[in-house]
C-alpha cells in the first residue's frame, strides 16, 4: 500500500513538474481583411510587459503598403511627465496566414516578434497575441486588447469575455490583463 501510494505521488509530482509553461497553441483568426484592419487602434488592456512599463496611452497605427507589408507606428506617453514617444516598424503578414504577422522594429531597442490577430471586427475591437518559448520550460507572452475608441466600455462585456475566453481556453492566464490608461489628448 505504501509503495503504491508513493508511486502514485511520484507520478503526480512528475506530472506537475512537466506541466508545460511553453506557449499555448493559440491560433490567429486565419483570413483577415487587411485594409479594414488598418488605421488607428487604442490599446485598452494588456498583459504586464517590461517594454511598456512606465508608459500609457499606447496606440498603434497600421498602414498597408502596396507590396502587402504593413507600416506600424506605435505611440505612447511616459506615465511621468507625459513625454511622447513614437517608434516605427513594419509587419510582414504570412502569405498563407495573413493574420500571423512578423513585426520588425529596427530602431532602438531592435525587436521582432510574431504577432497573431486572434480576433477582430475591424470597427471596435481586436485581440492580438504574441508568445515566445524560453529555455527551462518558460514562455514570454503578450496579449493586447485594442479598440477603435479609447474606452474599454466601447467593447461590450460579452465580447470582452469571449475574447479572453479564446486565450484562457488554450491555457493563457487572462487574469493578467490590466487596463491601459488612456487619458492623453491623442
Ligand atoms: C506564425 O508564423 C510563425 C513563423 O513565421 C510560426 O513559427 C508560427 O507557428 C505561426 N503561428 C501560428 C499560430 O500560425
Ligand atoms: C496613420 O498613418 C497614416 C499613414 O502614415 C497617416 O496618414 C495617418 O495620419 C496616421 N493616423 C494617425 C492618427 O496618426
Ligand atoms: C511606409 O514607410 C515607408 C518608410 O518610412 C514610407 O516610405 C512609406 O510611404 C510608408 N507607407 C505608407 C503606406 O504609409
Ligand atoms: C467611438 O467614438 C466615436 C467618436 O469618438 C463615437 O461616434 C462612437 O459612437 C464610439 N463608439 C463606441 C462603440 O463607443
TrEMBL record:
GO MF term (any one): pigment binding
Entry's Gene Ontology cellular component terms: cytoplasm
Pfam families, A to Z: Lipocalin_2
4Fe-4S is among the record's keywords: no
UniProt GO BP: lipid metabolic process; response to reactive oxygen species
Keywords linked to the UniProt accession: Disulfide bond, Signal
Record InterPro entries: Calycin, Invtbrt_color, Lipocalin_ApoD, Lipocln_cytosolic_FA-bd_dom
Listed Gene3D superfamilies: 2.40.128.20
Keyword Signal included in the entry's annotation: yes
Residues of the signal peptide: 1-20
Domain Lipocalin/cytosolic fatty-acid binding per the UniProt entry, residue ranges: 37-181
Family to which this protein belongs: Belongs to the calycin superfamily. Lipocalin family.
UniProt-recorded name of the protein: Lipocalin/cytosolic fatty-acid binding domain-containing protein
Organism: Oppiella nova
Amino acid at each position: 500500500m505504501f509503495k503504491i501510494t508513493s508511486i502514485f505521488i511520484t507520478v503526480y509530482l512528475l506530472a506537475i513538474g512537466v506541466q508545460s509553461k511553453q506557449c499555448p497553441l493559440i491560433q490567429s483568426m486565419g483570413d483577415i481583411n487587411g485594409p479594414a484592419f488598418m488605421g488607428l487602434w487604442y490599446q485598452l488592456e494588456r498583459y504586464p510587459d517590461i517594454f511598456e512599463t512606465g508608459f500609457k496611452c499606447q496606440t498603434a497605427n497600421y498602414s498597408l503598403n502596396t507590396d502587402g507589408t504593413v507600416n506600424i507606428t506605435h505611440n505612447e506617453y511616459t506615465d511621468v511627465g507625459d513625454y511622447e514617444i513614437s517608434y516605427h516598424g513594419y509587419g510582414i503578414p504570412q502569405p498563407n496566414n495573413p493574420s500571423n504577422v512578423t513585426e520588425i522594429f529596427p530602431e532602438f531597442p531592435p525587436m521582432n516578434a510574431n504577432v497573431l490577430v486572434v480576433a477582430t471586427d475591424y470597427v471596435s475591437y481586436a485581440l492580438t497575441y504574441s508568445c515566445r518559448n524560453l529555455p527551462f520550460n518558460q514562455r514570454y507572452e503578450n496579449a493586447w486588447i485594442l479598440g477603435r475608441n479609447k474606452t474599454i466600455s466601447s467593447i461590450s462585456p460579452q465580447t470582452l469575455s469571449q475574447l479572453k475566453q479564446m486565450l484562457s481556453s488554450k491555457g493563457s492566464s487572462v487574469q493578467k490583463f490590466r487596463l491601459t490608461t488612456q487619458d492623453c489628448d491623442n
